[in-house]
Amino acid sequence: MPIHLERDLPQPLQEQLAVQLRRAIVRGQLTARTRMPSTRTLAGVLGISRGVALAAYETLLADGYITGRHGSGTYVSGQAPETAPRPPAPPSISGEALIDLRSDRPSAQGFPLAAWRSAWRRASHHAPPADVPPATGLPELRSAIAAYLRESRGLVLHDHEVIVTAGYGDALELLLRAQGGPAPVIALEDPAPPQFRIALGRHGTVLPLRADGSGARPDLIPAAGDIVAVMPERNQPLGVRMPTERRQALAAWARESGGLVLEPAFDGLFNPALNPRPSVLAVGEASSTAMVGSFCDILTPALRLSFAVVPRRLAAAIEERMSAGHGQPSFTCQLAVTDLLTSGCVSRRAERLSAQYEAKRALVRQALGAYLPDTRLLGADTGAAATLLLPVHVKAESVVRGLRERGVLATDLGAFYHPRSVPKNGVVLSYGHLDGITLRRALRALTGTLDEHCLSHRTAA
Q1: pTM above 0.85, yes or no
Q2: How many Å apart are CA 421 and CA 427, to the nearest integer?
Q3: N or C: which end of the chain has fewer CB within 10 A?
Q4: Residue 207: beta bridge partners?
Q5: Are 270 and 375 in a shared domain?
Q6: What is the per-residue DSSP string for 74-141?
């Protein structure tokens, strides 16, 4: 199968390579279960860097065209996504709607609808500006975001700039490409949300950075890493918080290597009782730390507005890219979010969600604590999701399948790991969006499934 890469095209080499390999798989030129050449071999044959070949493979892995076998290599998947039949609709139980524990969505309970309507109504009273709005966002919105970060995270952004974007992916793209040069090598905390890994993989080569019971390990940062992406406040799905010493070690790595540490502005902690810890941005040098955030976890994922907190040295390059026509939220949307922030609506909503989630976490701990010590429950003290680690003889895919038969959809923990990592055996449960009655139904289905797998209540601690 001939492959032709054009260095003069605006499309990056890794995208060209991924497109041509994907086409070959769909057309049957690379048949199912064919072993792919190693990235080193492919790079040598095509005269490209190994990072380019690795980035193309990561894209195909994420899209399901190829699969990695630990210790064996990379193979074409049994069925290409384009030609795979649509899976049958999952069954419902007794006519009841399916309970989805896969989606990490905020609770709609007690949504501040009156404040939401008022903010948009007041924003609509402003006439559209005669000039093009500032490329990096309205000054009043950027100031409001900085003030909220100061209030909620204790951050004083003397040497950083807040950049407003139309979406989380846009914020990542602007930040990752602002440094110029070839596509970066990104060390991502492993495990991590698959959508975050895919979003980063669109702009660089993503390598796993192993996390343990204290979060990402700075001593294992790959030598080729340009950027380290971590979730220090709450790893999703393990729920662990990174100690201050590791945050300082990450800042030291960035200072010594000239790299960049990227962290979320909000990690979905939702537990004000925990002692605050300084963000990496607070302990590191301004030129080597950055944040990306949105208000999806507090307000709604439908709000197409995100932001990046970037070192001042990158702000000019980002502003230039945005001035060239990069997407931006509407003028009215920016005014409405400014109103929600300055009125205290966002702060009050975060406090109410914290109380709601604590009650739900208590239900989860009560229901699943009976299966200790055969299982381990992670992340049930913070956030709105938890991970149930299973013993070796109870496979996660079997539990997920049993839950599906009972009308509950859950996620195998393996989906959160890098394709080349060896995942832990467990099930991830996201429940923040469920009301109390529905959550109890889901937990009854889960305990029933665990009982079927011989994890009886007699194992309770």
Answers
A1: no
A2: 17
A3: C
A4: 187
A5: no
A6: EEE-SS-TTTSPPPPPPP-BTTBPPEE-S------TT--HHHHHHHHHHHHTSPPPSSPPPTT--HHH
